[in-house]
Amino acid sequence: MLYCLRMLLMSLHFMIAGVLGVLLGICRPFNPDNSRLCARLYALPAMWLLRLRVTTQVDSLRNKPSSCVIIANHQSNYDLFVFGNVVPYRTVCIGKKSLKWVPLFGQLFWLAGNVLIDRGNPQKARRSMLTTTHTLQHEETSIWVFPEGTRNLGESLLPFKKGAFQMAIAAGVPIVPVCVSTYVKQMKLTRWNSGDILIRSLAPIPTAGLTMDDMPRLMEKCREQMVECITAMDQALQKPEGKPAPAL
């Protein structure tokens, strides 16, 4: 019963947030800070409805360089609400072109200045990547990417795609890894308190002076750091039932 009520309220919230987000986008179309505001619009009520307790340690994200590539692990559609709490100032996201057809959310995503990539068309995808490189170099805007390319559904971190790292090296901007604990299989939406989630950002990883030949080593370094961080957070959450989440 509680689960059904939550899903009903979440559906209503998703529609209301979509309408408000589209109105914001119409008032200031393609403003790169629309994404942060819309992310909060989705995340804050959702965390209250879902009763998920999120503990964050994201100083390196909050104090990030003016332009950087942010990479994060991608577990489920709930990431929209979980990560929405920590999206920093002037940060846009890369998503697949098909998102644009999702009612309200797709239009909001586009008006928020996010980048839509046609993954089935390599030439268009390459042009989009060149546009994002220009954005990183000249517009003091950061780009949030899920380098796994798809949801891992709470399993181990999937192999990384090259796009985020190509952008960072081409623009010469740092990479800021952001990790969320493995929550998708642990949250219990049939309970009043659904579970605990930890989010931690890691120190920026510089790319200045690197070439595309350095990309495999850079990808491996980022993935290793994120796997280590996620493992540590998961271990911290292995606690007796009913106790609060530990501080990071």
Question: Can you tell me the CATH architecture?
Answer: 3-Layer(aba) Sandwich
Distance between the termini: 34 Å
Broad shape: globular
Order of the strands making up the biggest sheet: 1-7-6-2-5-3-4
Structural class: alpha/beta
- Counting structural domains, the number is 1
Radius of gyration: 18 Å
Model regions low in confidence, pLDDT < 50 over at least 5 residues: none
Spell out the helices and strands N to C: HHEHEHEHEHEHEEH
The total count of strands amounts to: 7
**What integer is the average pLDDT?**
90
**CATH topology annotation:** Glycerol-3-phosphate (1)-acyltransferase
Helix amount, in percent?
40-55%
Largest sheet, described in full? 7 strands, mixed
Number of helical stretches of at least 4 residues = 8
- As an assembly, this protein is single chain
What is the CATH C-level name?
Alpha Beta
Strand content: 5-15%
